[in-house]
Here is the input.
Amino acid sequence: MAMIIDGKRIADEIREEVRVEVAALKASKGIVPGLAVVLVGDDPASDVYVRMKGKACEELGLHSVTDRLPASTTEAALLKRVAELNADPAIHGILVQMPLPKHINEARVIEAIDPVKDVDGFHPVNVGKLIIGEDTLRPCTPAGVQELLLRSNIDPAGMHVVVVGRSNIVGKPVASILMQKQKGANAIVTIAHTGAKDLRPYLVSADILIAAIGRPESIRGEDLKTGVVVIDVGISRVDDATAKKGYRLVGDVHFASASTVASAITPVPGGVGPMTIAMLMKNTLKACRWKSG
Here is the structure.
């Protein structure tokens, strides 16, 4: 059976490192990293995520501001609020929770955030720096994937990494991170996606598989080669009459079959998921250090 990569344990390690550094920064310079999260509308999943971010800030000693705006908020009003946060010296990181209501242009809002406060790592300036290998604020989930590998003593250098999925949130940035000629990367990366007539030839060639395609349990053990490392970014609800809530959470990979051939695998839940907020806290601290010199 595969080694289970415990994302919660690794995320807790990172959070503790951030907590210690935040306390040291406050003691030495009197500076507290500040994160502002803006939520527009009342999407239940977004609301849960925003509350988790606020709780993490409190636990780690960060200054936290949460703006809850009605779904009727205009694009102009949201852009005005972003501009105010850009100018606020107590705020080092800004995150506008996606998705936004349909009448608001998401790209315009992302581009309005000061790149040095863009702790989501989605601003075109940060995306460009990521691609050319410059130090920047990196998207939290892809950066978390790299941390999972390295803290599990899995060095991707020289390995064939197959990323299944090409989203701007996970697929493209994680490929960019792992292909860089840098320590902790230097992998040979293939991006596979729904445009392929048959994904299996790509899957079976992977030394490391990163699944982020959004198709529950669509990748099975028989699609993989023995010894592969599986990082499952997907998370979906599937009906299950035997479960207490009537459903269960699964990834893009069929865990039971894949774990019999993989050398290491992330579970869902408890794998990649906890890393996202941990890396957000780390990005906020990094942005604060940049600002404070």
Remarks:
- The chain has two domains: 29-114, 140-273.
